[in-house]
Known about the structure:
This protein is mainly alpha-helical. It has 17 helices and two strands.
Amino acid sequence: MTAPSMSWFSIVRMGLVQTALGAIVVLTTSTINRVMVVELALPAMIPGVLVALHYALQSLRPRWGHGSDVGGRRTPWIVGGMAVLGIGGVGAAVATAVIASNFAAGFAIAVVAFTMVGIGVGATGTNLLAMLATHVAAERRAAAATIVWMMMIAGFIVTTITVGSFLDPFSTTRLVAVTSAVSAIAFLIATAALYKLEDARLDQRAAAQPADEAAAPFRQSLSQVWEEPQARRFAIFIFVSMLAYSMQDLILEPFAGIVFNLTPGQTTKLSGLQNGGVFCGMLLVALAANPRVGFGSLKVWTVAGCFGSAVALLALVASGITTDIAAMRIAVVGLGVANGAYAVAAIGSMMALAASGRRKREGMRMGIFGAAQALSFGAGGFLGTVAVDVIRRFVEMPGTAYAAVFFFEALLFVVSAVLAVRATETRHAAELEVPGSREDGELTPAMPR
């Protein structure tokens, strides 16, 4: 039997959960990172290691996705993940305050806090997307992905701009208070949005699954998904492209603070400008790629987003060398627009692939994609901070060190655009539908041999 599809209102409620998740994450990866590097004068490698730790823990995403596949419900995993994430976010702010007077104690607290952030993000994000892939009709998946991600970016924008105002004049006490308030509000919003969302109506689909599918061991489930050529190749594309996407994540605010002498509040607002660009890029693709408009496919927008990101990064390189603050802000907005176009196109493809193939594997499949993304983000953020620290030892102008990293990131985006062509062509070549590949009679894209 075919279960009823999730309504647009329910999709928006899912978007509120993603908004809440993003509000906490943006503080730990952007604001707290900048405070450690600029205000506390720590090597950029320190927050780089911490953020890399939280991404490394997300290699466990397939396990969390499998757990909800077996249990048949995603909500407990999402709520539990948000609780752990909120506590971790507060802990990260407390650790930053302690580091100011006692580095060893503060760093120990930070390790625990970022471990919790990694677990919370992984459990919440994987099962949120798995719920969407499971319960949203095929014709709504791209739009649903756009809505959810745009709401997350909206959360980034509101959080960074609002928090930026409350952080000035800066103090570590103020940082802890603001982070605690944001974490508490985010958890309450997520819990309220999920209330009775995954009800009996949506659970009809889970009840219709064969018992042997639900009870398959983790290793067997993982092996079955990895043997799917579509899933495997797309995971590789995600890893490479997200490596390019993430390298500036931890160095953009320190770059603006060191090269352009911006305050913590000003650089936090700069992140808001970037996220505003991402929001616009996603909206552009959602409107232009609509079947009624037909201006470009997801493949075209993925490639265009990668090339556009490369151009914006080259503009950022030039602004760092000339110390032109207006050019820097324009480049940051442009980078956000291009990143948003790439992201929503890739997410739309990810949603479709997560729901294809063997049933009761949506959580596992999304876990693999999420793990590839998270590991790539961790590696990219860490490599970016290490590269800046190393290059600054050999060059006199700090702007040159950041420019070198941005230039390398631009090259990675060019490579990603080439990979995107192959990854998307593989997916489109597999879109011949074959009957009987799903238990309820739905058609599934055939896997390439």
